[in-house]
Structures are given as C-alpha cells and as structure tokens.
Design goal:
The strands form nine sheets. Strands 3, 4, 5, 6, 7, 11 and 12 form a seven-stranded antiparallel β-sheet that branches. The chain has a four-stranded antiparallel β-sheet with strand order 14-15-16-17. The chain has five helices and 30 strands. The radius of gyration is 20 Å and the shape is globular.
Length: 383
C-alpha cells in the first residue's frame, strides 16, 4: 500500500474462463482481450446490440468498460464509441428494456463521490482501516438509453433518476406492480434504498419510502450491498431481498400489492440467521428442484483488519444456504457440503448450470483468492 492505495507488483486484471465442457475451465482473458484496467468491481453480460452474441460490461474504480463480442472468441473495447466513457466509481450494473422498445438499456450503480484527492484517513491506533461509507458524500447513479446503433444516451436527468444521490452497491430490475414495465430496486450503503417505479415514457418515480423499503423498521438507513428479486411465496407479486452489513440483519421485503412492502426477514427465519454477517452476493435459486425458490448468500466483512479492533466479528464469513419450506426459510447451510463449513472474504456470486445436468451451480467471487465453484449434486426426479 502506498498512500492508502494498492500498488500491486503485478498489475490487476479481470479474468474470463472458457467452459471446456468436461468440468474444467481455461483462462482465455488475454486471448479474448478483456484483461481490463483499473480495479474491476462488477460485470453484466447481455447482447446489447441484438446480433445474437453476448457482450460484456465491466464496472471499475475509474470508469465503465464495454466489450463488444467479435463472434470469434475475442472482444473489442467500444466504451468511448458507445458514449459510456465518463469517469466514476461504479459498482453494479443491470441491462433491461426500460421503455419496451426491444432494446436493452443500462442502469449503472455509482457508489459515492470519490477520487484519490478525496481519500480519508480512517486509521485506528495508527493503522489504516476500511472507511465506513458515511465518510463520503453520496452521488447519483446513471441510466443510459440504448440508441439502437451501438451508442447510448445518458438519460439520468430526464428520467428522474439523476436527482437522487445515493451510495449504490446493488441493483435488480423487476416489475413490482405487474404493469408490464420494468422497475428498479437499488441497495444503497449507509443511506436509504431507492425503488424506482417505471411510469412509462422514459420517466421513473422514486417511491422507496412510501413502499417501505428505504429504511429499517426502526427508521434507520442500512448498508445494503447484495440484492435480488423473486416471488418467493408464489402470490403472483415480486418480492425484494437486500443483504446488509453485520448487526443490521438482511431484509426480505414481501410485496403486499399496491406498491407496498413489508420486511418479513424476522418471521421467515432469515433475520436472526444473518445478524452477524455482511452480505454481498445473493441469489434466489431452486437448488433442489422442488418448485420453490431457495436462497444462497455470499458473505464477508469489508474490513480485512476488523478482528484487530472487534472480537465478535470476523473478516472471513461462511456461505449461507436457505431452503424455502413454503412458509419461510430453513437454514440448511450445515447440510450444503464441505464449502459451507469454511469461511471466506466473499464479494459476489453468480448462478447457472455449468454442466447442463439440469441443476443450478454457483460461482462465488472471493476477495484476493481464486473463485469458488459449487457443483450442485442434489438428486431427485425433478428437472
């Protein structure tokens, strides 16, 4: 560390792994041309130009990187040409059709007003620690409209999204009121969460407070990081989930209809099971193919030196697996396999069927370590 900033001997890079279809992967990063620059934070994959090939958007400390798929195993950095070259501290992103015109638009989470000149000294006993986000000012996230010609227009201001200053870590798009328009739920760290209701015509209304998802039941802003959405109770309405920092409990917001939500993390069993953890990656997956969405969580405290100043918290935390029993969630982590008996500084996860066996697998991103691959070996007659 030099002046509080990481100066690795070997430059940091992103990584792209090719699935060899035999249970192994090959690192094709250099060949594909996607090593990137700056400090990579998140990635969102989609065919933004409708040519049938999946493109990649990488969020970084510094700026966005948009890689166009060249159809031959390589990618071209088209960030500047696409109109996405402005600097920022970007965390997560989501592709979605905001106006139902058949083109994928882009929402990008911006974390805080931050650059090297604004760096704060968050030292304890002369040792630099992770700076709690309250130290920094909030900043607006961005919405880019797909022009249909490979370029994007920043519509953050005209859409209404740009007037809200947050510290966005996670975002999910879903239709909370079944009107056929995709809404946005944004998890903010140390300030209230945002719920952007899509009003059509390129306009969004922020209704987080009215909807009951902005603050905790005690009226406090929490440190939202991981986020997901699904109809977990099969009532036909999309519910919302947020993973928060330790001692805040994670949030499971049941959609009551009428754009109103109730946090049911407590009665469903998730609240107390997560109270001492800090959650990043989270996904609803039906891991046992019983027709009900279960939940997997990747956790890890943000401060790698937390144990030197707190004897009840750990930097490395376990993965959590919850089974949906139809009335709530059972913590079945202990039965999840050897990986659930270990602890990690996890920072994100992705789900998908890696081997085409009909069961959903999981890849967990670990800070400073190799990714963790969880192969689903649950056996039943369902598919």
């Amino acid at each position: 560390m030099v002046g509080g900033f990481l100066r690795p001997a070997k430059p940091l890079r992103n990584a792209l792994y090719h699935n060899n279809r035999d249970g192994t992967f090959t690192d094709v990063t250099e060949k594909a041309g996607v090593a990137g620059r700056d400090f990579g934070i998140g990635v969102a994959a989609a065919d933004y130009d409708g040519d049938g090939w999946t493109d990649l958007l990488v969020t970084t400390y510094g700026r966005l990187i948009l890689y166009h798929n060249n159809h031959d195993g390589t990618f071209t950095d088209v960030t500047k040409a696409a109109g996405l070259g402005e600097p920022g501290l970007f965390t997560s992103a989501v592709w979605f059709d905001s106006d139902n015109n058949g083109l994928l638009d882009l929402f990008v989470c911006h974390f805080a007003k931050y650059n090297k000149s604004l760096e704060r000294d968050c030292s304890t006993n002369g040792v630099r620690h992770y700076c709690y986000p309250k130290t920094y000012e909030p900043w607006p996230s961005r919405l880019y409209k797909n022009n249909g010609n490979g370029t994007f227009t920043d519509v953050s201001v005209s859409s209404g999204i740009g007037q809200y200053f947050g510290k966005a870590f996670g975002v999910v798009t879903t239709d909370i009121n079944n009107d056929g328009l995709m809404d946005l739920f944004v998890a903010n760290d140390s300030v209230c969460n945002f719920l952007y209701l899509n009003k059509g015509g390129g306009k969004f209304e922020e209704i987080g407070f009215q909807a009951g998802v902005a603050y905790s039941a005690d009226g406090a802003a929490r440190s939202g990081m991981g986020v997901d959405a699904i109809d977990f109770d099969a009532d036909g309405r999309q519910d919302l989930f947020v993973a928060n920092i330790n001692r805040e409990r994670y949030s499971l917001y049941r959609n009551s209809g009428g754009n109103i939500f109730q946090d049911v993390a407590g009665p469903t069993g998730i609240g107390m099971a997560t109270v001492m953890y800090s959650g990043w990656g989270c996904r609803f997956i039906d891991f046992d193919l019983d027709g009900r969405p279960d939940l997997i969580l990747a956790n890890g405290h943000p401060d790698d030196l937390i144990e030197s100043i707190n004897n009840t918290l750990r930097y490395r935390e376990p993965l959590l697996l919850f089974h949906n029993n139809g009335n709530g969630f059972d913590n079945v982590s202990a039965a999840g396999g050897p990986a659930f008996k270990e602890s990690y500084p996890a920072r994100g996860l992705a789900v998908g069927d890696l081997d085409n066996d009909g069961r959903v697998d999981v890849v967990v991103g670990i800070s400073g370590e190799a990714p963790l691959i969880l192969h689903n070996i649950v056996r039943n007659a369902n598919h």
